[in-house]
Design brief:
The protein is α+β, with helices and mostly antiparallel strands. Helices cover 32% and strands 18% of the residues. The chain contains twelve helices and twelve strands. The strands form four sheets. The protein has a five-stranded mixed beta sheet. Strand 1 and strand 2 form a beta hairpin. The longest helix has 16 residues. It is globular. The chain starts with 14 loop residues before the first helix and ends in a 7-residue tail after the last helix.
């Protein structure tokens, strides 16, 4: 489950479970993400993600590359080379004093803006990417707290053998194929962000061993692969609001191929240039994405606000009612007593 700091509605990692299960106690996810022995850990999966601990060994190739200054953000690269001593000093401090966050360090406050990091934060992030520290929890305004891996992860996980990069990437691709059912090679590698240059060999091995089979999908130009355990449903029913970071839609190319639905997150688009809104959730109804809504949790007034909404041209007649029902379920789940959905009323006449 991808983690994201935006909280205009609800943190991203809480949403996929709501989309699939309905209302649930978010405190349960908080507990299982930090309980001991750890069953989940935070690391770079798709993006920053909450992952099962058995993925740790499968992602050590990424940690080893980061240790060499490869495959990481440009601002972090110096800590693998000429500024390694600064990172090692931070690591020694964590070892001696215990878990800390960037805000615990003198002079570590960023100058301005949420994306302007301090030098200490950059060093900590390089240590995290290289696997030299692990995230123990998040605190306050969603700030990551770092500690030594042996104080966070189960000993059995840390002692597990490290597979070769090809073996690890083959297993990650297999997991992606099982999750996606049918997918292109680009879809498969994007699931764990495996570099394109690393995909050909493990993908060929998966085909050879019969884990996936090459197939053609009507309407797709690209070669696709079907997982041997994928089963097509006889009937697809249900409804769900989808986070912008939901695994079903996070690869926008695949979303367009599957649903003929173009979706872009407009958070970083200037307000006057946004087409659909700031934090827009697509609405899945049965086997189609039929609408989208720009949502905001106004916690001060206790209201879930629909700031903007639109429907697709082929949306069925019951789309607005189904969307309103789902929005009310979300408001109840978030503990918001009221729902402000005036934009939905204007859409009634647009549904054929």
């Amino acid at each position: 489950m991808q983690i994201d700091s935006v909280n205009v509605l609800v943190r991203a990692h809480y949403m996929p479970l709501f989309s699939r299960l309905g209302a649930y106690d978010r405190a349960l996810l908080d507990r299982v993400s930090i309980e001991r022995p750890r069953r989940f850990f935070e690391y770079w999966g798709h993006e920053a993600s909450l992952l099962p601990v058995d993925c740790h060994a499968l992602l050590r190739w990424r940690m080893e590359r980061a240790l060499r200054g490869e495959g990481i953000w440009r601002q972090l690269e110096p800590f693998a080379t000429e500024r390694r001593g600064e990172a090692d000093a931070l690591l020694a401090r964590i070892a001696a004093e215990g878990a800390l966050a960037a805000s615990d360090l003198a002079g570590a406050v960023a100058r301005k803006g949420m994306w302007v990091w301090s030098e200490a934060k950059h060093a900590l992030e390089w240590l995290f990417w290289a696997g030299l520290v692990a995230a123990t929890h998040r605190r306050g305004s969603f700030e990551r707290v770092y500690d030594l891996p042996e104080r966070v992860l189960p000993r059995a996980i840390l002692d597990a053998p490290t597979p070769s990069p090809v073996d690890a990437q083959r297993e990650l691709l297999a997991r992606a194929a099982l999750a996606l059912g049918v997918a292109t090679s680009g879809d498969l590698r994007d699931y764990y962000r495996i570099p394109a240059s690393d995909v050909a060999l493990p993908l060929a091995q998966l085909v050879e061993e019969g884990t996936i089979s090459p197939v053609q999908v009507r309407g797709w130009r690209q070669q696709a692969y079907l997982h041997r355990d994928a089963v097509a449903g006889r009937r697809i029913g249900g409804s769900a609001l989808l986070s912008p970071f939901d695994p079903l839609i996070w690869r926008r190319e695949r979303t367009e191929r599957l649903f003929d639905f173009r979706y872009r997150l407009e958070i970083y688009t200037p307000a006057h240039k946004r087409e659909h809104g700031y934090y827009v959730l697509p609405f899945l109804l049965d086997d189609a994405i039929v609408a989208r809504a720009d949502l905001k949790a106004d916690r001060k007034s206790g209201c879930l606000v629909v700031q903007q909404a639109s429907i697709e041209s082929a949306a069925p007649r019951d789309t607005i009612d189904a969307l309103r029902t789902e929005l009310q379920l979300m408001a109840d789940w978030l503990g918001l007593p009221s729902l402000s959905a005036a934009p939905l009323d204007a859409l009634h006449g647009a549904v054929s």
